[in-house]
Amino acid sequence: MAINLNAFNVTGTVFEFGLMPSATAPFTANQDGAYFRVKDNKLYAVCGDGVGETEAELTAITLTQDKYIHVRIELSATSAKFYVDDMVTQEETITTNLPDNDLTIKVHAKSVANVDTILKTDGVSLTILRKR
Question: The pTM is what?
Answer without folding.
Answer: 0.86
